[in-house]
């Protein structure tokens, strides 16, 4: 069972941020729930409503990359290094792969000690094996004689026939991304094998695999880029640090945290989120439930859940031991002298003597811990499901309802953007509110003032969001179901825009 210390260690010094309601966070939390006091007409003029909303959004510090963008950036980096160092494109590619596609690191290392860099990555300036001027050469793998036209070698000069090269490439490429740092097959030689050799001698299937590994290495080896973690998404993200905001929204509509790649969870820190996700999936919670809701059979020690009203328990086969649920004694010992079959008083007597104190204390602690966890998890999961429903409603609004509402109310779709903005705000608010419950779970019980203030802010957030969600979900239906323009639509616009703000 998790101890109270385990539950509260999200507030240790290693956490990214101890209190997201303190002044040290990157944004004031849930400030979009605050009430508005000025004249509503000042806020919701149609001409500048979208401008005001845009101005509230933080400046984007990431770029979404499609496959074409990734290839273009990769080619640009290779061309830049090749031009600055006056080396072939293949050599530039080998250098960049070694230095994790960092152009600056390549330049620094090269100009500091070119000879050492060449030796490290296998870029030889002259052959180490001199081929004789004969019409035929011996393959260094199969030791067969081949015409010069059927033998190929890297910069080191070691000769190998086409079929042996193809077999070497096939085996290496099928072993995984390690093929990107291929060296000459000679065990004593460290000469690098470039992509030009792959393109010349490998099969079409192996060429495609190698090209794919090369593309993925540009993202996976580069500290400034990551793949979007959404299932099936093939977009990558390049991130510019500095703003303190790690939330990234991919073109696939998935939002995630750049720092930990979990679902976007600002303003809750990554440490709390990691612990919460682990707790939701850990076997410890199963054991916690077993400890709180079952008792071990006195004979075989298997946990048993009480599923009927009487105290007469029978263990499952092959044990079949019959015992009393209250005192865990053999049922055969129960009779008139112990208070009757259904009124065991041995347990009460033993409890008064302190026999069961430690066991019951642990059981009670487990039960309280489980109830507390269930409280926060249910609310976390409820907001998650509400967010998923809101996302579906947003999609329905954008694809179907906006057009219908435009026809019904005789207004252009550009004048109905306030509805889409409201649903986008609902989705974002559900996300924030969901993660506040993981934060609340790890708040120390002894910090009463902080806990009360947090729960007050959480309640205000919940209240404001429910008003907005109900307005966008229920009250909008009146206008969607209307047969014609409604004189109350402008009042609805003002109300919904006000709740959104």
From TrEMBL:
Named cofactor requirement(s): Zn(2+)
**What's the domain of life for this entry?**
Eukaryota
- Where does the record place Acidic residues bias? 1-49
Top-level EC class, please?
Answer: transferase
Q: Which EC number(s) does UniProt give? A: 2.3.2.31
Ranges where the RING-type domain occurs: 135-348, 139-183
Stored PROSITE patterns = TRIAD, ZF_RING_2
This enzyme catalyses: [E2 ubiquitin-conjugating enzyme]-S-ubiquitinyl-L-cysteine + [acceptor protein]-L-lysine = [E2 ubiquitin-conjugating enzyme]-L-cysteine + [acceptor protein]-N(6)-ubiquitinyl-L-lysine
Q: Tell me yes or no: is Magnesium among this UniProt entry's keywords.
A: no
- Which GO terms fall under biological process for this protein? protein ubiquitination
Checking InterPro entries in the record gives:
ARIH1-like_UBL, E3_UB_ligase_RBR, IBR_dom, TRIAD_supradom, Znf_RING, Znf_RING/FYVE/PHD
Give me the ranges of the annotated region Disordered: 1-52
Q: Could you confirm whether the keyword Zinc-finger appears in this record?
A: yes
Give the pathway: Protein modification; protein ubiquitination
The alphabetical list of record keywords is:
Metal-binding, Repeat, Transferase, Ubl conjugation pathway, Zinc, Zinc-finger
Which molecular function GO terms apply here? ubiquitin protein ligase activity; zinc ion binding
Extract the Pfam families matched here. IBR (PF01485), IBR_1 (PF22191), UBA_ARI1 (PF21235)
Question: What job does this protein perform?
Answer: Might act as an E3 ubiquitin-protein ligase, or as part of E3 complex, which accepts ubiquitin from specific E2 ubiquitin-conjugating enzymes and then transfers it to substrates.
The entry sums up its family as follows: Belongs to the RBR family. Ariadne subfamily.
State what protein this is by name: RBR-type E3 ubiquitin transferase
Species this chain originates from: Glycine soja (Wild soybean)
